[in-house]
Amino acid sequence: MSRWNGYDAEPPSSMPTIHAPTPRRHLIDTSESQHWLGSPPLSPVSSTRAVSPFATHFPSNTSPTSATSTSIRGKKAPDSPTRRRTFSSLYNTDNPPKHLRQRQTSNASISSTYTVHGAANTVSLHKALLRSKYTQAHGETEHASLGRRWIRSMHKRGLRTWVIPGAIAFATLVKLCLGVGSYSGEATPPMYGDYEAQRHWMEITTHLPFREWYTYDLQYWGLDYPPLTAYVSWLCGLVGSWANPTWFALDASRGIETPGSKLYMRLTVVFFDMLVYIPALIMFVKTWQGTRSKRTQEQALLLLLLQPALLLIDHGHFQYNSVMLGFTLLSINFFATGNDLVAAVFFVLSLGFKQMALYYAPAIGSYLLAKCIYLGPKKGFTLFTRLAVTTVASFAILFLPFFLPGLAPSPLHILHPIQRIFPFSRGLFEDKVANFWCASNVVIKWRKLAGDGDTGRSWLVRTSALLTALGFLPGVLGLLRAGWIMRIREDGSTQKARELDTTITNIAEEGAEKDVDDSKNDNPPPFLPLLSYALLTSSMSFFLFSFQVHEKTILLPLLPLTLLMSGAQPGTALHSWGALGNNVAVFSMWPLLKRDGLAVPYIATVVLWNRLVGYNPLTNLSVDFRQLFSLAVYSAAIALHALELVIAPPARYPDLFPVLNVLISTPVFVLIWLWSIKCGVEVAWALGGLSSSSSSGVTAGQSLGTTTGGPGRTGSLVPEDRDVAELEVPLEGPASVLLSEENLRLNGPGARRRRVGDFVERVGES
């Protein structure tokens, strides 16, 4: 046999070709698909990196090299090449920002030059490559956000372990600086404002028994939040009374504004923020963006920590919204890890702290119901029963002092907190809020149209409830349809496949820890990415159409919108919509912030946040509806601010400027609501939720990765005469993605066992 000396142009044909993968740091040098970089490990023992449950599987364009490497003895490998990507990066593929498109073009041209000229001009081509990479790095540094540049510098200086503590410390410093300023109702007797309301609740819960919490002097800031807020107020009042009893003396402390009491009240907001909200944010970036780089996770955390609307309302205006949002976010995080019962408890805590968390209830309820449908009749009914018992027990514990004999006069006493929590006796909207009712009230006087008295109020309540339900219906139907189409069915034909799968797993994991049984439902369903868009659709629908809305409740739609934005690249559609929504949300609260004397913090927090996230609507200008619409909105907002500085409103129209603010802000929120519905439809389509094979479902054998081909197959979502890797759906927004059966196979229950089984099968064939 002839030996190859290593200097010939090509080795003899008899020698096997070794295909070495390109290292990750050199991935920029080639334009070929490197699907193996993100493919799931063949064995669960071989990977120590956590996989994000927010990730989905997408096909890659298989190069000849990869096609050769995935074949075994002339046979197709059991798995088609896939790569794992976080879901927020899905929207970056079709419309990347300008500097990323330039980098891709440059890489493609250099790669093609190498292909054409071979090794003839290796030195010159290598220099050209280095120049191109330097130019790309310099350009990316210029385009990088302030936050990303700070994170990069910390990593280069060997301080990467201090990035998250530094970000939290900086955010805490910003909150304390905001606390130095004024607040709601400062020095404005006799009712003062929200600050006095929160302080007064600490006063009455500390000195009065349970039975009087929701009935004592309702004309002066009567308690109208759920019991968990009352318990937190009691705890804060108890600790504050130990420090200084005059701060919370019953009736005598009304309107107290001493420096010590103000400092204590501000620190309670920071404390509960650190206790609930910040751990929820850290868990979010570790769970939902677990497959992203460390720097991307830190950038997402920095973006979420300094969200201007929440900072201004909680630490400027003074409220505890971060506690409610933190409980909701913890619930979402535990849904992603498959701990549905724990997630249900945290969502009950969110509802028990502020009733506005009901804005998320349709999305979360439909997600849980869809998962029960997805698991099949037996396991689904078990999960449904456990969820029902957990939810009822959690609410019962929260309301226990208000109906338990001995603590309450009678079980009917529970009606007092319920009537206070849902104030249908109030108006359709409060102040000037940027929703449908207030904006359309300029033309249609709804109160006059409905009439006075209980009849008119009842008609407004029913109409608002109907519009709200129609608003969140697309998100609910998308989740339920996805659960129905992707449902797992047990039948006799798949029992042997399940037994074989169990046998292979036991052999492969001999001597190691046993895998968790599928009946524990610890895997999130494949339609989990729909939850974020359903939350945005539901909460925005409540804000736009529901009864009795405050301008501060825009914080609820901002949570899912900012979570989706946190993993997107600057310049992408997702990033632009998220930045526009956050900026306009702060602008919509300008009348409230102006009344509180928070003009300087209003400007400072918005400018700081936009610099940190790298958002500038004037960069990369193009003839695009999103950019043109954003420029028009920002121009109108700046013009309105300038108008307020130089012109006083006419005496006949004292609310002229707040109404103009509403007319500018409402179209933005309506478009974000429609955009969330559009994205939800696209994601459902991408995950197979809009497949036409809804009548058959997915059998348990298919979900366990058994053969998809062959006659007699039941409930298949893939035609028998086509390969799984060829099933790509061209979509307008997201990239082409794999249909549902492959997603179920690689991301559904038993995925770990299937990877072990595929590994054993490959070893056996080779």
TrEMBL record:
Residues 1-105, 692-718 are annotated as: Disordered. GO terms for cellular component: endoplasmic reticulum membrane. Signal peptide: none annotated. It is found in: Endoplasmic reticulum membrane. The chain crosses the membrane at residues 162-183, 263-288, 300-318, 324-349, 356-377, 383-404, 465-486, 527-547, 598-616, 628-650, 656-675. It comes from the Eukaryota. Keywords: Endoplasmic reticulum, Glycosyltransferase, Membrane, Transferase, Transmembrane, Transmembrane helix. One of its GO terms (molecular function) is dolichyl pyrophosphate Man9GlcNAc2 alpha-1,3-glucosyltransferase activity. PANTHER family: DOLICHYL GLYCOSYLTRANSFERASE (PTHR12413), DOLICHYL PYROPHOSPHATE MAN9GLCNAC2 ALPHA-1,3-GLUCOSYLTRANSFERASE (PTHR12413:SF1). Belongs to the ALG6/ALG8 glucosyltransferase family. This is Alpha-1,3-glucosyltransferase. It comes from Candolleomyces aberdarensis. The lineage of its organism: Eukaryota, Fungi, Dikarya, Basidiomycota, Agaricomycotina.
